[in-house]
Amino acid sequence: MFFGESTIMLSYPVNLELDANNTFLVTFPDIPEAITAGDDEGEALLNGLDALETAIEFYFDDKREVPMPSKRKKGQLVVSLPALTVTKVLLANEMIRQGVRKSELARRLNVHMPQVDRLLNPRHSSKLEAMEAAFHSLGKRLNISIA
């Protein structure tokens, strides 16, 4: 996925620790609010994605930029956000950087506030055309690439 001139893929490094109960504790150095666990590594990583998406909702609610992932260390596992969630994170971060509130975005897009709320809901299946229009209203262009 391209945003501006750079390729953006949000793959967050994961810390997995086996605890005393033989469950895997999952934490994210870049998103400390995302904490979960799983009975095995696969379940822990799956739960990690859910915890990451939930933490991102907190950032959106608090109108704080979502931190970009740090570079993973050799052998470190990552959890990658789905492409649509990536676009929502980038949109929210750009709105914060430009000082554009949801009401202003709604005005620019000529839509009602619930539509903007859905654009900024990581769990809502927004249409790609709506995401493109939102970026365009911020003076940005959304390009998609397959690698």
Automatic annotation (TrEMBL):
<dbReference type="Pfam" id="PF15919">
    <property type="entry name" value="HicB_lk_antitox"/>
</dbReference>
<dbReference type="GO" id="GO:0003677">
    <property type="term" value="F:DNA binding"/>
</dbReference>
<dbReference type="InterPro" id="IPR031807">
    <property type="entry name" value="HicB-like"/>
</dbReference>
<dbReference type="InterPro" id="IPR035069">
    <property type="entry name" value="TTHA1013/TTHA0281-like"/>
</dbReference>
<dbReference type="InterPro" id="IPR010982">
    <property type="entry name" value="Lambda_DNA-bd_dom_sf"/>
</dbReference>
<protein>
    <submittedName>
        <fullName>Antitoxin HicB</fullName>
    </submittedName>
</protein>
<feature type="domain" description="HicB-like antitoxin of toxin-antitoxin system">
    <location>
        <begin position="12"/>
        <end position="72"/>
    </location>
</feature>
